[in-house]
Amino acid sequence: MSPVIHGNGYKKNSINSDAWAMLEIAHREGIETVWDRLAKQQPQCGYCNLGTSCRICSMGPCRVDPFGDGPQKGVCGADADIIVARNLARAIAAGASAHSDHGRDILETLHIVGEGKSNVYKVSEPEKLRALAVEYGVDADGKSDQELAKELAWEMMEDYGMRRKKLPLASRAPQMRQETWEKTGTYPRGVDRENVEVLHRTHMGVDNDWVNILLHAVRTALSDGWGGSMIATELSDVLFGLPKPVSSHVNLGVLRSDSVNIVLHGHNPMLSEVIVAASQDPELVALAKEKGAQGINLAGLCCTGNEVLMRKGIPMAGNHLMQELCIMTGAVELMIVDYQCIMPAVTETAKCYHTKVISTFDKAKFPGAEHISFDPGRGLEIGKQIVRKAIENFSNRVPERVHIPVEPVPMMAGFSVEAILGALGGTPQPLVDAIVAGQIRGAVGIVGCNNPKIKQDLGHTELTKRLIENDILVVVTGCAAVADGKAGLMVPEAADLAGPGLGSVCKALGIPPVLHLGSCVDNTRILVLAAALANHLGVDISALPLAGAAPEWYSEKAVSIGTYVVASGIYTVLGTAPPIFGSLNIVKLLTEGLEDVFGATFAVEPDPNRAATLIRRHIERKRASLGLSAIDPESIAMPEAELTFV
Ligand code: SF4
Ligand code: SF4
Known about the structure:
Blueprint: H1 17-29, H2 34-40, H3 46-50, E1 53-54, E2 62-63, H4 80-114, H5 126-135, H6 145-157, H7 175-184, H8 191-201, H9 210-240, E3 246-250, E4 260-266, H10 269-279, H11 282-290, E5 296-301, H12 302-312, E6 316-318, H13 323-327, E7 334-337, H14 345-351, E8 356-359, E9 370-371, H15 379-393, E10 409-413, H16 417-423, H17 429-436, E11 442-446, H18 458-469, E12 472-477, H19 478-486, H20 500-509, E13 514-518, H21 523-537, E14 546-550, H22 556-567, E15 572-574, H23 584-598, E16 602-604, H24 608-625
Parallel strand pairs: 4-5, 4-7, 5-6, 7-8, 8-9, 11-12, 11-14, 12-13, 14-15, 15-16
Antiparallel strand pairs: 1-2, 3-10
Helix pairs in contact: 4-6, 4-8, 4-9, 4-22, 5-6, 5-9, 8-9, 9-21, 9-22, 10-12, 10-15, 18-19, 18-24
The protein binds iron/sulfur cluster (SF4) (2 copies).
Residues 302-303, 319-320, 341, 448-449, 478-479, 520, 555, 557-558 line the site of one iron/sulfur cluster.
């Protein structure tokens, strides 16, 4: 490998001392990282950044030059508007497909449970299963959990087919929102149908009306938010348990020098659930001790980590940009990967250490990894087989190369909607009262990834701090949650960092001012909470003092999430710029025009302090429209830009 530490050194890459320590090792030992590869890609393609390159057909590839003297049209005649719209729609479909296919895997597992063919999974939340059955019109009376699981699974499989006119879970949205979707032809019908239709429409010579393409892209994103992702979240709760507030720890300090360390990376909780069970098997614990370890230590990465943190309190080693650095501790016996956000680079990094990488889903294989095909019917058996491999690898560890650089930071997680409402006494009214009284000005969901183009975690943590100190409740998911956890913002004591109103509410309830709602598919918990608040007040979601933000997003899944959040009526600020700036028509539509259609727009602002001002102004405008006490939005000063893209 030939590393090039880009920029002015590794402290520019991350705000975290655990990342700095590992980057120093990478530099010393010549191990390449994501930042080196980003540097080697410079300058990245300007056409692709603007979204005006197209390689949909083999008359191309084409590039159009909307602001210069170059070609204005591709070979087929597509202009910048068409090309940008098609590219954006395809990105949304890829993200929606990823989430929804994850949902399908969980749904198939529910079906296996219903057929009595699993040796490890069961219905863990019968009440939630029965509530879902009611929503799907399945008669639950007199049926066992197993019978009901099978029947509900059959019914939900229709969500992926073409017989539906409307996805049933979308009826959780307020009536006014559903009418907006009806009027605009964006009410999601079937998960697979909307995704396939994007691919059809964006084939050369099909849909060439850029507004029409984008409206269907919205429908596709909604089939993710109110369909595939929501199925993933709801059924994960049914099978693996409803998250409840739980205390744990975060950062590379959660790895243990005296234990067999297994890192769980990816998104799907099916396998990680059985790994948790297998790691407690007395025979395997005894084997670990026999090999000289104190025990078996599990740690999470990315959203598989979030899933087991939310439900089991398993500590979190880090977020997206920590996946290579985690291996460089020299303390990881095994990294188990399922799918999504796993860089192919991890197997290269692992070659520099004793770490084994095991891939587990047949749809996600990695050169350099050992593949053990996961079969939910034989879950526990496979889980034990994998944990045994980790234990056997412990003796290959090189103690002199073990470097766990920091102490772990405590954090709380487990705030499902049910847990939040439970803490409020079973109704959103206390939260509404605090908002009406102005103690809490509003609420913001900060979600999404790390992106090496932005200093790791800076966007998430600075935005969060600015919002909570101005009495805005923050809910987080995905890698944003891990960032705020590392920064110490997710413990009850962080109420001291909040403004007086939010701080006093948090202290009264014993909760942090930043609530962990889960993984990326769990952004649907934000939708459900927003819908519950809106329904409680008899207004549309777009009337509420809410906003979303994805300060460091990188993934197509985040494009889908941002789109369904805006189409659900929530103003959303992106930190990294989407590739749309080659079409000023589309920029205008997404940042202004959507307001009249969906009651919400996108904004793009990489500087978190400026993003906080945009959001605060938006929240105060919404408060004023609801007749609540409001600060004049223009009196909230816009700071000078300090952070720009790397
Ligand atoms: S679809 Fe049109 S713009 Fe795209 S590659 Fe083919 S000819 Fe070029
Ligand atoms: S937040 Fe982004 S990087 Fe992190 S796990 Fe989710 S999609 Fe992947």
